[in-house]
Design brief:
By secondary structure, this protein is mainly β. 0% of the residues lie in helices and 49% in strands. The chain has no helices and 9 strands. It has a 5-stranded antiparallel beta sheet, with no helix packed on it. The radius of gyration is 14 Å and the shape is globular.
Length: 108
């Protein structure tokens, strides 16, 4: 078993959101995202895997492939289908974990 303290030693980018992979293996990866108020993760997708986001702290606006914006806060799980475009914008200090199946390590 491995354990991770997600809310310790947090790093935030001055201009852009910060993404810190804290676990990656052939089965998948988990990434800790930290955003200051107003920071945005531009539209993107994970072409071959669903994306699971768990909000730990703060509030953000999330939109998926349909373009509908949802304001979400702590204790929320968001699920984006494989290949589904999505955007994130922090309303206040936002911290969430993204989990993806598979990893670039699987190709090595």
């Amino acid at each position: 078993m491995k354990t991770f303290q997600l809310m310790e030693n947090l790093k935030f980018g001055d201009k852009d959101p910060h993404a810190e992979p804290f676990h990656a293996d052939r089965e998948g990866r988990a990434i800790l995202f930290t955003l200051k108020p107003g920071q945005t993760i531009r539209e993107h997708n994970a072409p071959s895997t669903p994306v699971f986001l768990v909000i730990l702290k703060g509030t953000g606006v999330f939109s998926g492939g349909d373009g509908v914006e949802h304001t979400c806060g702590p204790n929320t799980l968001l699920v984006f289908d494989a290949g589904e475009n999505h955007i994130v914008r922090a309303i206040d200090e936002l911290i969430f974990v993204g989990v993806l199946h598979g990893s670039p390590l699987a190709q090595k």
